[in-house]
Structures are given as structure tokens and as C-alpha cells.
Amino acid sequence: GAPTISIFLKPPGLMAPGGSTTICCSCRCDGGNFVLYKDGHQLHALKLRGSRAEFSISNATREDSGAYSCHYLERGTVLARSETLDVRVQELRLPKPVLAVLPGPEVAAGTYVTFRCSIAHSSAGCFLYLEGQVQAFNLPPEEHDFNLSHVHKSHEGRYSCQCFTRNVSFQWSAVSRTLDLVVR
């Protein structure tokens, strides 16, 4: 079968103008190249390093916003395509949220864990990011908690959160500092 490609931002989240991020494309592949596309147009090709290729965006502008995807090629033939990753560059006007994990960052398998994203804005909604994942977890407004029951090794990783308001136009916060969840 064709290899499966994943695409994600490191660090995840919306970025401010002048900010930087890395688009990571990874798969369990042998050799080959990754080609990065933005809004359907080819941008860069990179040789695979291990199981990953990284494309950097620095000093970001609104023109860097768009729909990115990776194609994996061997000998000029496209063998697989990633999902689409929405990259956005926008002014960050809200205060930076604080992320906490309860009962703590190191837990035993099977434990009930709560991620709490706190921000000084009553009507803000927030997203919880797990590095390496395209999809974010949407935290309900006013609650800002995300609960995991019976955690296991697949929940391990680097988490962060980012908040927004839905006023006349969306306003965003910077991304919180990261927390590493370790499952024993």
C-alpha cells in the first residue's frame, strides 16, 4: 500500500506577522522526496531526512497564510499526499493563555487527566494542540477544560493552547508555553 503522510506545524497554532514556524512532513518511507504545495502550487522539494522533511517559514507575512500539503515522490512518481494544513498569519491581540495539566505532567496509565487553558477574557474559546497532530481539540467557551479518561502512551506529547474571540472579527492570543505529558 501507499505510505501515509502526516503534516503538522511546529510550534502549532496561528502565528503573528514576523513570527516563524516549521511545516513538518513525515512518513514511514524509504528515500524519496517531499514536495510542499501551497494553495495547489508547488513551492519546495526536499530530500527525506530519516522519516521527515521540514520546511521553515520565518519573518511571516499574511502572504504566508494558505492551505499547505505535502506530496511524497519516488523517482518522480507521487505515491502519497498529506491532508491539508491551514497556516494563518494574523495579529495576536489577546493575552497569552496559561496551560495546566491536572493532576500533573507525569501520570500513570489509566489516569484521568484534565488540560486547563486559562485566559483573562470571559468569552474566549480556546484550542488545545498536541504537537504532531493536524487537528486541534476545541475547548468550549467559559470552560477551557479538556478531559482525557484512561490515558495511555498515545496521549503522551507536547501540548499547548491558543485562544480566540468571535467579536466583529476573530481576535487571537499567542500560543501558551508548552507542557509535556508523560504516561508511565
Low-confidence stretches: none
What's the CATH architecture of the largest domain?
A: Sandwich
C-alpha geometry? flat
Name the CATH superfamily assignment of the largest domain. Immunoglobulins
The total beta strand count reads 18
What's the overall average pLDDT, rounded?
A: 88
Helix content: under 10%
Main sheet attributes: strand count, strand direction, barrel closure: 7 strands, mixed
Give the class from helix and strand content and strand pairing: mainly beta
- The radius of gyration is 18 Å
Our count of helices gives 0
Q: List the secondary-structure elements in sequence, H or E.
A: EEEEEEEEEEEEEEEEEE
Whole-number total of structural domains: 2
Write down the CATH topology of the largest domain. Immunoglobulin-like
- Highest-level CATH class of the largest domain: Mainly Beta
Detail the topology: elements first, then pairings:
Layout: E1 5-10, E2 21-27, E3 33-38, E4 41-47, E5 52-57, E6 66-74, E7 77-81, E8 85-87, E9 92-94, E10 98-102, E11 106-107, E12 113-118, E13 125-130, E14 137-139, E15 145-148, E16 157-166, E17 170-173, E18 179-183
Parallel strand pairs: 9-17, 11-18
Antiparallel strand pairs: 1-2, 2-5, 3-4, 3-6, 6-7, 6-8, 10-12, 12-15, 13-14, 13-16, 16-17, 16-18
Keywords: Disulfide bond, Glycoprotein, Immunoglobulin domain, Repeat, Signal
Protein name: IGSF1 protein
GO biological process, one term: cell surface receptor signaling pathway
